[in-house]
Amino acid sequence: VRQDRGACRVATDAGVVLARPSGRLQHEARLEAAHGPVVGDWVAVTAAPGGSLARVHAVLPRASLLVRREAGGAPQGQALAANVDVVLVVAALDAPLRLRRLERSLALAAACGASGALVLTKADLCADLPRAVRDAESLGAPVALVAGAEAAGLAQVRALLPPAATGVLLGPSGAGKSTLVNHLLGEARLATGEVREADRKGRHTTVRRELVPLPHGALLVDGPGTRELGLWVGDAEAGDTLGATFEDLEALAQGCRFGDCTHAREPGCAVRAALEAGALEEGRLESWRKLQRELAYAVRQADPEAARAHAQRVRRLTAQGWARSRHKRF
Ligand SMILES: Nc1nc2c(ncn2[C@@H]2O[C@H](COP(=O)(O)OP(=O)(O)OP(=O)(O)O)[C@@H](O)[C@H]2O)c(=O)[nH]1
Ligand SMILES: [Mg+2]
Ligand SMILES: [Zn+2]
Fold it and tell me: What is the pTM of this model?
């Protein structure tokens, strides 16, 4: 239910205990971070005699794993939470919505085998509410509109999180994630922080990921604000879809003359036709392309078989390229 430095908190039938992963688990987690226990995991744990830390021996198979690509350095996944049903993408309405970022977060949820929904907070501070809602709804995910502790908004969030479902809040610092949890709890249990007046950004108040049982029976994971969200997939089977976010574009592409249309210069391209007719925004098409590439890369990383096939293809193409350029030159 919570990750601390070097230890974790595990909910057991005897209450929440502090536990440390076994040597073997720690070793595996060093090799591949996602092997270690993360918030939302079911684990096998034994109590330790004499008040020392309990021991986590194994992580049970996961129904889903929310992972993002770690910023910078070698490409690797950072597990955010396990057994996630719904990702609640949180955005505050005291600043313009950044649709591309929301789109990316929804795509990450889909790639990790979870469903995605948008939670727009600070509706009380929004200058043009109808427009914000229209923009958010254009992304094809359910939208909840929250204004502080106002009951209607909280009911919308609860409707996205059925009892026994596990949700994760995903959004930048200052978006109001912890505030939302507190309102759902009906008490100020989690720390919240003021945003900076100048740019409405938060101050990274929440520093640990934590799973909170809500009174209506759902579980909700709060955590530090996330700015960069690189696509990654929890396991090879889960992710080969960008989900509902791009369903309209995928349907459009079905109308292209060629099955492998890249929507660049091919004749009979339905996607370009929609662009030219003004029915589709260039930025959205770019975002779709970029996320498709990122997803394909992430799937290859998760699936050694696919990675090998890709490497072979690249080698073959490069060899052909070499052969062709030699042919040209001599
Ligand atoms: N007016 C208004 N303010 C809100 C609302 N939700 C949150 N806030 C304020 O926004 C600020 C940031 O809220 P937090 O809940 O700490 O934000 P957070 O997303 O948890 O931020 P980090 O923990 O830093 O990632 C606080 O001052 C809240 O009181 C809302 O619906 N309306
Ligand atoms: Mg917080
Ligand atoms: Zn096309």
Answer: 0.86
